[in-house]
Amino acid sequence: MRIYYVYILKCSDESYYTGVTNCLERRFAEHVNGRNVTCYTFTRRPVELVFFREFGYINDAIAFEKQVKKWSRKKKEAAIKACWEELKLLAACRNLTHCKNK
């Protein structure tokens, strides 16, 4: 079975980059070496791998990557620190339209 990875890189400008790959070592090396000049990380090197999660199915990995890309910086940092309770609190909607507030 093939393994897929969703990963987060911390860039030199303190921003985060989220991606998906089937070979984490190769993909990280591509970011480090600046293989693609149009890649977000090219001008933000050096980069540091700060998070990754394994998936058995590419569709699950892509769905999680899309979800993470929409997360706030605080949510990403909670995942990086493996603070899952904090992530749950940050994910709770607190506006007036939330179902708990109706």
TrEMBL record:
Alphabetized SUPFAM superfamilies for the sequence: GIY-YIG endonuclease
Source organism superkingdom: Bacteria
Any one Pfam family match given in the protein's UniProt record, by short name: GIY-YIG
Domain GIY-YIG: 2-78
InterPro entries: GIY-YIG_endonuc, GIY-YIG_endonuc_sf, UPF0213_domain
Family the UniProt entry places it in: Belongs to the UPF0213 family.
PANTHER family in UniProt: UPF0213 PROTEIN YHBQ
Protein's name according to its UniProt entry: GIY-YIG nuclease family protein
Organism listed in the record: Dyadobacter chenhuakuii
